[in-house]
Design goal:
Blueprint (H helix, E strand, L loop, with lengths): L1 E5 L3 H12 L3 E6 L2 H10 L3 E4 L5 H7 L7 E4 L4 H13 L4 E5 L3 H4 L6 H4 L4 E3 L1 H14 L4 E6 L4 E7 L11 H4 L5 E8 L2 E3 L12 E7 L3 H5 L10 E6 L3 H9 L5 E6 L3 H10 L4 E3 L8 H4 L7 E4 L4 H13 L4 E5 L6 H4 L6 E3 L1 H13 L4 E8 L3 E7 L20 E8 L2 E3 L12 E7 L3 H8 L2
Parallel strand pairs: 1-2, 1-4, 2-3, 4-5, 5-6, 12-13, 12-15, 13-14, 15-16, 16-17
Antiparallel strand pairs: 7-8, 8-11, 9-10, 9-11, 18-19, 19-22, 20-21, 20-22
Length: 446
């Protein structure tokens, strides 16, 4: 595929490198000659000097081709939105825009994606915050995948010995609507449960659920800790706002440290359930005075990579149980485990993953393996003649080998009930028996 990348910064360069390696023909547009020279010296891509929001520049790059794709990844949201909209207007097949600000991404005031006819908006900071929040909400769980930009969670964890679910069948358990048990690992066997499956204390389960009620379903299988989790966030970046909103729950006591007074006051107005402290948490005496070492989790999300790394290492040596750090430069991620940091994230790596997934034209894609050669997770696009269309899921012939774990319809992703329907153009997440892909193709016209 011919892919046009607008913006030759860290995200654009990393995306160009990854997409070129995957076999795509890449053109990078940027208005800074020095950036383009660096890209030309290290990558086998075409470069074009100019304003990426200009229709003539986009035409020269090949954006009139209906088989081409465009990725707007400059550092300015408005330029990305305009560029993607112009590209769609002159005929590009697929346009993806990266945004940072919640006003463009959360669709509360206006659905910019739909209004501007952009195929997809991605916000790596939001997705990174959701991944961090998932770890903090369920520190003992092994996160498999977050689906639908954080609307769906899917996690694997052991059943507690005294959990409410032990000894009960799924029918007797009555899980909340929007939560489903996707698979059970029992000893060396992994299988999909049915209504009469009884939960045993040594089971390891794979649970999928809508983000807002996932915790309610989890409580049936593992008793929640009664104590409040103390979370310290260093840096008042947009990611800190996303993360604070994701953790808005009585189980969390959140403090955000932001040294800039104007930004601290802005955060205090936005996040009235969060304690905002206007100082640098790494300053001499502040760490001890604010008793940061007693926190259950320390998350560094400032805009400075080195500051995040040093603060995280300091927090770990001070006794913080869990330390999470974000870095913009992807090459730093591998270093963080060596300095004792428990989890490391790079929004730029997340951005490239989202871009590659958005460009993938396959109608069916294996996105995870729960047990090699036994149970897989697939993303499937529903075709126009799928036999599943027009039937409630309970009448779609998938059981006992497969189950629909999530449906994405008109941009909304949720866990379905047995009475829900799928429509042509929907995307479904299916969990089940490995090696039965032909049957999935048939059922969903993939």
């Amino acid at each position: 595929m011919n892919v046009i990348i607008c913006g030759g910064g860290e995200v654009g360069t990393h995306a160009a490198e990854s997409l070129t390696r995957a076999g795509h023909n890449v053109t990078v547009i940027d208005n800074r000659p020095a950036h383009l020279r660096e890209i030309e010296d290290s990558l086998d891509v075409r470069t074009l000097l100019g304003n990426c929001a200009n229709a003539d520049v986009l035409r020269e790059a090949g954006a009139e081709d209906p088989d081409a794709a465009l990725v707007a990844a400059t550092s300015t949201d408005e330029i990305n939105l305009l560029t993607a909209a112009v590209a769609k207007g002159i005929g590009v097949g697929k346009a993806i825009a990266r945004v940072h600000h919640s006003a463009y991404f959360n669709k509360r005031g206006l659905d910019y994606e739909k209004h501007l006819h952009i195929d997809r908006l991605i916000c790596p900071e939001y997705s990174t915050a959701q991944a961090i929040a998932s770890i903090l909400r369920n520190p003992t769980a092994m996160a498999i995948e977050n689906f639908g930009s954080g609307q769906i969670e899917m996690q694997e964890f052991p059943v507690g010995e005294k959990a409410e679910a032990v000894g009960k069948t799924l029918v007797e358990l009555s899980m909340p609507q929007g939560v489903r048990l996707a698979a059970i690992r029992r000893g060396d066997t992994v299988f999909l449960p049915v209504a009469t499956t009884e939960i045993e204390p040594d089971d390891v389960i794979i649970l999928v659920g809508n983000h807002d009620i996932f915790h309610d379903g989890r409580k049936l299988f593992q008793k929640a800790a009664k104590t409040t989790q103390r979370v310290v966030i260093m840096g008042g970046s947009p990611m800190a706002v996303w993360l604070s909103r994701s953790l808005k729950d009585s189980r969390f006591s959140i403090r955000v440290f932001e040294p800039n007074r104007a930004r601290a006051e802005e955060l205090a107005d936005k996040l009235d359930w969060v304690t905002i402290v206007c100082c640098d948490v790494t300053e001499e005496g502040v760490f001890e005075e604010e008793r940061v070492g007693e926190a259950d989790a320390f998350v560094s999300v400032s805009e400075d990579d080195e500051h995040n790394i040093l603060a995280g290492a300091w927090a770990k040596t001070a006794g913080v149980k869990m330390v999470i750090a974000t870095v913009q430069r992807p090459r730093y991620v591998r270093l963080l485990n060596r300095v004792g940091i428990d989890h490391a994230f790079s929004p730029r790596i997340v951005a490239v993953k989202q871009i590659k997934r958005s460009l993938d034209e396959a109608s069916m894609l294996r996105i995870s393996t729960l047990a090699k050669g036994v149970v897989d997770v697939y993303r499937v696009r529903v075709g126009a003649t799928a036999e599943a269309i027009g039937k409630p899921l309970r009448k779609v012939r998938l059981s006992p080998d497969w189950m629909v774990a999530a449906i994405q319809h008109n941009g909304e992703t949720r866990v379905p009930t047995a009475d829900d329907f799928v429509h042509a153009g929907d995307t479904v997440v299916v969990v089940g028996k490995a090696g039965a892909e032909d049957r999935l193709h048939q059922v969903f016209d993939a």
